[in-house]
Write a structure and sequence with these properties.
5-stranded mixed sheet; 13 strands; disordered C terminus; Glutaredoxin; single chain; alpha+beta
Length: about 280
């Protein structure tokens, strides 16, 4: 459900009896959705809609089923660990437990972004509180999972832990919609900038990944986290940021390969551009 006076419409063409139905893969569906949203944004430029609403979007009502199945992406999204062994993430069908909306992100809308500078995968340093354009920051635990195949089953059993690679691919494959809306995309995790550079190259990501190894943003904003074998990770959520303030917190993000669609949906519903002067 959507906090506030509006409710989120059901996603057209989405069927969850454990997986997508039909002959089209999920990434193709999201690219079509991105094109549809791009057309809607162009109409908003022409018509000048009013009344953007700052709110938190929960997908609990939209995705009520207790499990989802990740499907093979149109483009390869598997990763390898440091020993060169493949750690599958989006290459096989995987049943995932659904994360509960525990209210851990309820306090975020309206919060100012703390003055933190983070290294980006392209070598630059980003200050989210100083960004001049609206930005979508998808926060995720770890691309490639725990890094070793012997821990993958345990990692998968944690609601919201697995699925970072298909989530990143979903933003990659729907960039047309974000660009049409004038929204910049970032990914953010506690992984090192060096590892994130590898992820950008391997997955052909057209956006920067931000490294927050000390989880400064988690501490500054009280973002939800979890621990796995003594290591602290971000929980998966998407922040919509404008003028240094959190406009929306999309949490929980589920299924992870629909994270980009969820963000585009929110942007489409709240996108406001000034009317052209007469």
């Amino acid at each position: 459900m959507v906090a506030g006076n509006q409710s989120s419409p059901a996603a057209p063409g989405v069927f969850f009896s454990g997986y997508w139905s039909g002959v089209c893969g999920p990434m193709r569906r999201m690219r079509l959705e991105a094109k549809r949203i791009a057309r809607a944004v162009k109409r908003s430029r022409r018509d000048g809609p009013q009344g953007a609403v700052v709110r938190r979007l929960s997908v609990e009502a939209e995705w009520p089923h207790r499990q989802s199945r990740l499907r093979r992406s149109d483009r390869q999204c598997d990763m390898t660990d440091r020993r060169g062994r493949t750690v599958p993430d989006a290459t096989d069908d995987v049943d995932l437990p659904v994360p509960d909306d525990d209210g851990a992100a309820d306090h975020l809308p309206g919060r100012a972004i703390p003055p933190i500078e983070l290294p980006a995968s392209d070598g630059s340093r980003i200050r989210l509180h100083e960004l001049s354009v609206r930005s979508a920051v998808f926060v995720y635990p770890s691309i490639g999972g725990p890094g070793t195949e012997d821990l993958l089953a345990e990692w998968t059993a944690i609601p919201g832990a697995r699925g970072c690679t298909p989530e990143a691919c979903s933003f990659r494959d729907t960039m047309a919609g974000f660009r049409a809306a004038g929204v910049e995309v970032f990914g953010l995790s506690s992984q090192s900038a060096a590892r994130q550079r590898d992820h950008v190259d391997e997955l052909q990501l057209p956006f920067r990944l931000l490294s927050d190894e000390k989880l400064q943003l988690a501490d500054g904003l009280r973002l939800p986290t979890f621990s796995f074998h003594g290591v602290r990770y971000f929980r998966r959520l998407t922040l919509i940021i404008g003028s240094g303030v959190v406009e929306a917190s999309l949490y929980p993000v589920f299924p992870p390969d629909q994270g980009a669609w969820q963000a585009l949906r929110w942007i489409e519903q709240t996108h406001v551009l000034p009317r052209p002067k007469a």
